[in-house]
Predict the 3D structure of the following.
Amino acid sequence: MKIAAVTDDGITISSHFGRAQFYEVLSVENGAVVKRERRPKAGHHTFAHNDHHDHEHGGSHGFDVASVNKHNQMAETIKDCQIVLACGMGNGAYQGMLQNNIKPIVTDIRTIDEAAHAVISGTIIDHTEKLQ
């Protein structure tokens, strides 16, 4: 199994999925992390600077064609992962990951290692009430 976590530092899970610069990808075998790698992540910093404007108007944000394309690009880098961890994410991004066969988990656990352990042990909680 591979677990991706959105991060800016490789240690903590970013509070905003779209703004994170990297994925920290953990390969898990027999209940243990056997490999880590950092991958660049497409995000708000990658795309046109009108994202902030889009957030202001709510409504269908995250589900319009442009947003769906962005979410697909964000998923492309981790298409070999089964799970992606974030401490915050929009509903459009959440649904986009699901459509790419990647299980998103919105967690309140701040460190990547602790959250990965919770995934491995089956105790992690997906806080979908925090979806934006």
Summary: Confidence is low (pLDDT under 50) at residues 49-60. Residues 2-130 form a domain with the Nucleotidyltransferase; domain 5 fold (CATH 3.30.420.130). Residues 65-76 form the longest helix (12 residues). The beta strands are 2-7, 22-29, 32-40, 83-86, 103-106.
